[in-house]
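2024-03-11 09:14:02 DEBUG pipeline.ingest accepted 1 chain
2024-03-11 09:14:02 DEBUG pipeline.ingest length=75
2024-03-11 09:14:03 DEBUG pipeline.predict start
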Amino acid sequence: MLPCRFLISQNPEVEARIVEELRSHGLLATPERPQPRALEHADLSKLTYLSCAVKVRCLHWPGTSARMSLYRAFM
């Protein structure tokens, strides 16, 4: 996930949109809510922009994703 975070950090518009998406679902700390709520499986389908950003990252470096799926297959 490090390359994904790097790519996001290099694009302030994408980073701002992801932060807003996470904030709108209560998944980031704010002054009103210093402790964010825990991420739940049901949240994943709601985080569409973040999901798209991760998928774009996989297009840039497909080998990393393939190695992880092979790793999981043998574990």
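2024-03-11 09:14:41 DEBUG pipeline.report The CA atoms of residues 29 and 36 lie 5 Å apart.
2024-03-11 09:14:41 DEBUG pipeline.predict end
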